[in-house]
Amino acid sequence: MTDFTVCHEQNHKITELSNVFLYLIRDRSMCDTECARNLFFEYVSRVREHMEKVDAQICGHLIQSQDRTMTNTANRFLSGSQEIKRIFAAYVKDWGDERRRELKIADHEAFVGDTNEVFGLIMDRIQRETEHLYPLVRKLEQTRPAAVA
After folding, report:
1. CA distance 15 to 81
2. Are the CB atoms for 132 and 139 separated by under 8 Å?
3. For residue range 11-61, what is the model confidence (pLDDT) as tens digits?
4. Contact (CB, 8 A) for 31 and 105
5. In whole angstroms, what is the distance from residue 92 CA to residue 94 CA?
6. What own/partner pairs with CB < 8 Å and gap ≥ 24 does 106-109 have?
7. What is the rounded CA–CA span in Å between residue 67 and residue 124?
């Protein structure tokens, strides 16, 4: 049985961090604060954790299905996930130093633009998970016979 509570909590926290960070970075002077750095790296950590959980547990669950629609959907999400991870890793490398937990912002306007784009990509992914993946897993779980005690 898949625990959607954890996924929904992760989605909520990622959304909250995204909204606060996007608001905060509009002011260039706020980008250099410890608060901004902490928000950024917490966001990075939570996004990575969430994507790994969805890929392994949700998509992994659907791929085992005999239903072609479910396996195709899971495969599309996994494929998209690889691209999102690649884009996200490049974004983090361009604008942050994870080892030192620092932001590297030479061009504030470019940073804000890239951040809006990448964070939007993550939010779209979360919305698609909620609308397409979670309902399929619920459907799959409802069709499976209960385990015999």
Report:
1. 18
2. no
3. 999 999 999 999 999 999 999 999 999 999 999 999 999 999 999 999 988
4. yes
5. 6
6. 108/28, 108/31
7. 25
